[in-house]
Design goal:
Length: 144
């Protein structure tokens, strides 16, 4: 699509930092943006939020409790750096995070977005809440 836009004479840009990747294993794996290791290696101080599939009502209902959601935020301002998902439907669930990264979202943007209940997509919201010290569905360190 980018090549077609260029051929048509339109100004376009491709931002690869928001390019999601999916691995169709069992459980599925999907990532977008920087990993915790990459962000740290780049000299960024990070805040990480991790939320297990096992704590989601929908995951329990469909017997898909293996896996987790992991978000990486810049510790200075909570701007999103990356997301990893391991679990059922990870390849579908990563799209919200790709959009958030493309929009330069902050942790609060996703954490405070209402997600339907009970759904698997709630897990991403919950992981952001863990990172912000606001999650009430798993034990997490309180952000100071």
């Amino acid at each position: 699509e980018i090549a077609a836009e260029v051929i048509a004479g339109h100004k376009v840009a491709l931002d690869l930092r928001a390019m999601p990747a999916a691995i169709f294993t069992d459980p599925e794996i999907a990532v977008v943006g920087m990993s915790e290791a990459a962000a740290t290696a780049a000299g960024r101080k990070v805040t990480v939020g991790k939320f297990p599939f096992a704590a989601l009502g929908r995951a329990m209902a469909v017997n898909e409790t293996e896996g987790f959601f992991k978000v990486i935020l810049d510790a200075s301002d909570n701007q999103l750096l990356g997301v990893g998902i391991v679990g059922a439907e990870a390849s579908d669930l990563i799209s919200e995070s790709a959009l958030a990264l493309e929009m330069s979202a902050f942790g609060e943007d996703v954490a405070w977005t209402v997600h339907p209940h009970p759904t698997l997509s709630e897990g991403i919201m919950e992981a952001f809440k863990v990172a912000l010290g606001e999650c009430v569905h798993v034990l997490a360190k309180k952000k100071v």
